[in-house]
Structure formats: structure tokens, C-alpha cells
Amino acid sequence: MAYWVYILRCADGTLYTGIAADVDKRAAVHNRGRGAKYTRSRLPVEVVYREACPDKGAALRREYRIKQLSRPQKLALISIYQRKQGSVMKKVAFIGTGNMGGALIQAACQAVGPDQVVITDRDAARAQTLADQLGCTAVSGNGEAARQAEYVFLCVKPQVMAGVVGELVPVLAQQRDKVLVTIAAGIRIATLRGWLEGLDYAPAVLRIMPNTPASIGMGMLALTGEPEAREEHFQGVEDILAKAGRVERLSENQMDAFSAIAGCGPAFVYPFIEALADGGVKVGLPRQQAMVYAAQMVLGSAAMVLETGKHPGQLKDEVCSPGGSTIAGVAVLEEKAFRSAAIQAVEAAFHKTVELGKS
Fold it and tell me: Do residues 210 and 219 lie in contact, with contact meaning Cβ atoms separated by under 8 Å?
């Protein structure tokens, strides 16, 4: 989990250094008088410096080093940071604010701060509404969004990706420090590179496959890139997605299979939850209670698989008593080919993803 070192300037001009997973939220705590004892009598405070660290331990070490600096040295550090903020790109731009793009935008605003996020969409009103909600910046046009940021996330449908990439070529020709990140199912990095005609260099291109639970920080995301992709680029994307959920690096030839499970999977699970709730209503539970019971059960069962490391079959056996009600229900699922249907759903999603990548 990414952590940040930050410096606050207090109302009396003094400086306070701390660490936090979310700097803006922590600053708000300080300004409510619930932060460090030092800042309580020096309100209001403002964030004048922030630095990303890979984890809490690294942040604590960096905080210690900054605290050892003299005040002039700290002011110099702040000055360099603020000049950089005024002249350098924002951290990330998102082209496309649909369901999946919106989920990632929300996570990015939490991870790197809304001031570092710029968004755009062909539906300008939708982009502006989302920007107003999250505090990030909406701009007009894909080229303008790409011009303003270091990392450019392409969150559009596979069918329109070629046209969007083509719009970015003039910007990429002028600014060589961009990192393109595509979330389109089925489109390989080599295919995207083929659309970057006219460039005399090869921009960094990474590919992620997210899912919608990323919007609440419980996503399952895959990240891949070409063998020559730099570690700093992988780390940069992981920092941006730090609040989205679990990120795994995969080889590109595994991405379509991953998408069929983790990307499409939520849409397979939701009808299951609904059906369980329907069953609960049928046997006498109120609808809302049945829905909560079913959803919480699925959440807890998934956590059991992840946290215990046990095989799902073993966990299933631990619930089933000989001659009991659970095994009776499991027998019905087997009779109705529940597992076979789930396997076929993944296979169908996989083949469709491959097909989309070829179109």
C-alpha cells in the first residue's frame, strides 16, 4: 500500500512533517483540530509538499530524513516541489469516464490526489459531473487530456480505440515522456503500437485489466507490459491504482483469460447473489434482508478463500455435514450443472474477448 510523506505549512508559518495513506484526508483531520498536538494551535494548515513512497516503512524513513533538515533546507525542498508542480504534467489523464473508467478515476483521485487527475469524455457533461464530484479536472478533447499528464489511461471501448489513439499521435510526437495505459479487452500492445503511425520513437505502453469493484477499493486488476517496459512505469501505474484493489503483474498472453474471470466475473456473481436472495424471499425472508444476507455471505466466503489459502472444495466440505441441509443444496447445484455453467461462462467470455481483439 502506497504511503505519502507530506509537509504542512501552519498558520504561523511553521512547518509540520508527517506521513499518511491519504494526504488530503489527513490534512482535513488536522484542520478539524484532530491531528497532531503541534498543529492544533496553529490552524489552518495547508499541504505544501507531498512525496509518494512504496510503503509505510519507506515513508517513515523518508519522514525521518526530512525532519533532520534545517528550516532553510525544508523551504528549499518545498520550493523545488512547487516549481515542479507548476511546470510539470499532472500525474494521470483518463480518456473515457464510463463505468470502468469512472471506477479507476475514483481510485486514482484517492491514491494520487484529485489535483493530479485530469479527465475527458465524448460526453462532456458526464465528465464534468464526475470531476465536480471528485475534485479532479475535466478538459475538452482527448489530445488536451493527454497533453496535460504523464500517464494516459485509455478507458474507451475496443471498437473505438484505434480512432482515439490516432488522435493522440500529434501530442505524442511533441511530448515524448508519456506512458499509455490501455484497459481495452482483447487489444494487444502490439496492435496498439500499430496505430501509433508516424512516430519516430516507441512510447511506453502498458496494459491493465480492471473490474468494477475497483471503485470501492476491492478490485482485482492485472498489469502487463512489453519486456522492455521500465520498472518505473510499472511502479507508476501501481501507485495510481493503489486504492483500486489488488494488482497482479501477468504476461500479456494471460490477460484475456484473466479478463474472462476477473473482468467479466462480477456480472456472473451478481445474478447469483440475486438468485440466492430470491430463494430467501421464497422461503419467507424480506427482500432487503435476503439481499444483504446473500451479499455478505459471498463477501465472507471469498475472504475465506483468500485468507485461509484453502481450496474451495475443502471449504465447501467443511460446511457440509453428513445428511445435512447444505449437502442437499449442493446436490441440487450439481444436478443443475452449476459448475459446468460457470466454466462455460468463462470460456464464452474468453472467446469473445479474443474476438474483440481481432476486430
Answer: yes
